[in-house]
Design a protein that fits this description.
The protein is an alpha/beta fold. The protein contains 4 helices and 5 strands, in the order βαβαβαβαβ.
Length: 147
């Protein structure tokens, strides 16, 4: 099903503050809907936007995004941001660092991180040999179609 798919973006639903359940449940459920793509060797670029996972995750079930992204053997570029972490930038940094530890990414594009949190993220990127670019990924349009 993903033989020709080279890149795609996952836009997560807003985390409702009135929903029954714990913070992060909506993003966890949404990510499970992408199991069909897991491990596709053709995927080299991905975007993950507007997610919110649990604070202080205890296991992969609480923070499934790093494991999901690690399943793509040729994933090299990630665009990642989420305004849902605007009041907890250190939690967003923890998510991105967990992703760096589990994947073979070469480049990460991110926004919405500044100050000390951006400094922490840049340091982690250097330690994992990842180029961190603090702006949105350039979009190629029109998109070339290969045969």
């Amino acid at each position: 099903m993903t033989k020709q798919l080279g890149s795609f973006d996952i836009v997560f639903p807003d985390e409702s503050t009135t929903a029954i359940g714990r913070v992060g449940d909506a993003s966890i459920r949404h990510l499970k809907a992408y199991e069909w793509a897991r491990g596709a060797p053709s995927i080299h670029t991905m975007g993950c936007h507007h997610f919110r996972f649990r604070s202080d995750p205890k296991n992969d079930e609480d923070l499934p995004l790093p494991q999901f992204l690690a399943s793509f053997p040729n994933l090299r570029t990630l665009e990642i941001y989420s305004a849902q972490y605007s009041y907890e930038p250190s939690e967003f940094v923890n998510v991105v660092v967990a992703i760096m530890k589990r994947t073979h990414l070469k480049t990460i594009y991110t926004t919405d991180v500044e100050g000390a949190a951006l400094g922490q993220l840049k340091q982690a990127a250097r330690e994992h040999d990842v180029e961190l670019i603090d702006k949105l990924r350039p979009q190629q349009w029109p998109m070339p179609l290969s045969e």
